[in-house]
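Reopening this ticket.

The earlier resolution said the output was attached, but the attachment link was broken on my side. Pasting everything inline this time so it's all in one place.
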Amino acid sequence: MRRLLLTRGLGCINSHTAVVLAEVGVEVVLYDNLSNSKRSVLDRLETIAGVRFSFVERDVREPDGFTSEQIHDFECFSR
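Inline output:
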């Protein structure tokens, strides 16, 4: 099984992405500092997807040595 780190994992776009990825068998690790989201989103996602997601509450700007085959953030953009 592939493991994917999804930063801002509890945000609008990435939370929906997490559900779709879980449905096709990807192990999704949600990574979010909760500055613009709520932890309660995690419970709702797990109910919708029917799986338990790994969750890391941390800011992506702080290195922690986490390893993953792929890291994605679909909500990241320039202003």
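Reporter confirms the inline version is readable. The chain has a mean pLDDT of 84. The chain has two helices and four strands.
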